[in-house]
Amino acid sequence: MRIGDVTIRSRLALAPMAGVTDLAFRQICRELGAGMTCTELVSAKALCYQDQKSRGLLKLGEGEHPAAAQIFGSDPVCMAEAAQIAAEVSGADFIDINMGCPVGKVVANGDGSALMRDPEKAARIAEAVVKASPVPVTVKMRRGWDKGSINAVELSRMLEQAGVVAIAVHGRTRAQMYSGQADWTTIREVKEAVSVPVIANGDVFSPEGAVRILAFTGADMAMIARGSFGNPWIFQQAQAALEGRPIPPLPSLAVRFDTAVRQVELAAADKGEHIAVLEARKQLCWYLKGVPYANYYKEQIVRMHTLADVHRIAEGVKRDLK
Question: Is 38 in the active site?
Fold first, then answer.
């Protein structure tokens, strides 16, 4: 499959998620079969004001291609400038515009999924970014703002007209946040409405889910978000399912937790031990989801401060849990 002038050799993408899809987690997911990745969302205003922390979020791993750098904002001029900065800093294959984030502090400024309330403005922003960006531009959106304004099909047509080369659709409205069930019918309607590739997102929590969402929607790729929390092997399993091969079992807990520790170590090398370990408090708990008798170690994990704590807890997990 091609998105713009870039060849994508997989039908599986890792969704961009703030506070989750940092360089370390993206690397782990790439190694296990994610064919396309995307940075966490980065503020266009912060890039225009030369914020160094925001620039750091744009760093890609060695060989991390194809990949997108995602920006959010609602001012066309600033978004255009930010697209140029993001492309230069990251070396990404695409610039992705966030029109889907439902978080209150983002939509309060008219950014993220708030753009779906004003399709004309969203299209103007897309057009400005397309004209300014040195690489192809994609968009990630939702079904609409709420159940009374499901306008993903209308907006997707406008975005294609503006020059966007691929559209990812999350099958929920902003009002739903992450509750309820994703509606894949809207994704199918978007796929039928446009000629650019469409990426289906929402409720892919199993390898079979990836097969189902692609079959139901006719989309070109499946984008996995929360289904990857503590389980990057979902990409490996989903790839097997898509190819009609037997789905490989999850590795042992010892192997899975070694991967979790490696993720923390990669993050520490990228952003420093203190921040990496604080963020690992939620990540390591995800790796223990569904593991019997893990509560003692979860309580230990949420009090970690150093990599030494991480290694000590990992040894305990591997010794005491199965």
Answer: no
Are 71 and 138 contacting, i.e. CB atoms less than 8 angstroms apart? no
Q: Which residue has the tokens 């993408």?
A: 13
Displacement of CA 130 from its chain's centroid (Å): 21
322 pLDDT higher than 90: no
The predicted pLDDT at position 155 comes to: 98
Q: Are the CB atoms for 312 and 252 separated by under 8 Å?
A: no
Angle between helices 253-271 and 307-320 (to 10 degrees): 170
State which amino acid sits at residue 315.
E
Predicted confidence (pLDDT) per residue in 19-55, tens digit: 999 999 999 999 999 999 999 999 999 999 999 999 9
How many whole angstroms separate alpha carbon 210 and alpha carbon 175?
24
Q: Is residue 288 within 8 Å of 297, Cβ to Cβ?
A: yes
Q: The tokens 């002038």 sit on which residue?
A: 5
Q: Is 97 left (phi over 0), alpha (psi -120 to 50) or beta?
A: beta
Q: Which of 38, 78, 101, 285 is catalytic?
A: 101
Q: What is the pTM of this model?
A: 0.96
Write the pLDDT tens digit of every residue in 144-175. 999 999 999 999 999 999 999 999 999 999 99
pLDDT at residue 203, rounded to an integer: 97
| Burial of 272: CB neighbours in 10 Å, binned 0-12, 13-18, 19+ | exposed
Cα torsion angle, 178, 184, 189, 192, sign? positive
For residues 298, 300, 302, 304, the Cα torsion angle rounded to the nearest 10 degrees is -140
